[in-house]
């Protein structure tokens, strides 16, 4: 065989535990939903709805996704 085993024994190691955690909380309520709809309405969707049907679904989704981001 061409593999050797290695064993490492660590004694008296003190690990510092992170006590603080960062949480991201999204408040989803009627106001945030309306704000989301309003922001979407300000975007230009011509690149998606102006297509003549020769574009496949994946391309349409990518256009939508890029516009959404």
Can you offer a commentary on this structure?
This protein has helices at 30-41, 46-49, 57-68. By secondary structure, it is an all-alpha fold. The chain has a domain at 30-68. The longest helix is centred in the middle third of the chain and has 12 residues, at 30-41. The chain starts with 29 loop residues before the first helix and ends with a helix. The relative contact order is 0.09. The model has no long low-confidence stretch (mean pLDDT 81).
What's the arrangement of secondary structure elements?
Blueprint: H1 30-41, H2 46-49, H3 57-68
Structural descriptors:
69 residues; mainly alpha
In short:
It contains three helices and no strands. It has 69 residues and is mostly helical. The chain has a domain at 30-68.
Largest sheet: none
Write down the secondary-structure element order. HHH
- The secondary-structure class comes to mainly alpha
Radius of gyration: 26 Å
Let me know the number of strands. Answer: 0
Q: How confident is the prediction overall: mean pLDDT?
A: 81
């Amino acid at each position: 065989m061409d593999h050797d085993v290695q064993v490492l024994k660590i004694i008296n190691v003190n690990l510092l535990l992170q006590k603080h955690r960062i949480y991201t909380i999204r408040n989803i309520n009627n106001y945030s939903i309306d704000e989301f709809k309003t922001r979407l309405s300000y975007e230009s969707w011509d690149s998606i709805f102006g297509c003549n049907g020769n574009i496949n679904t994946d391309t349409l989704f990518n256009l939508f996704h890029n516009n959404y981001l």
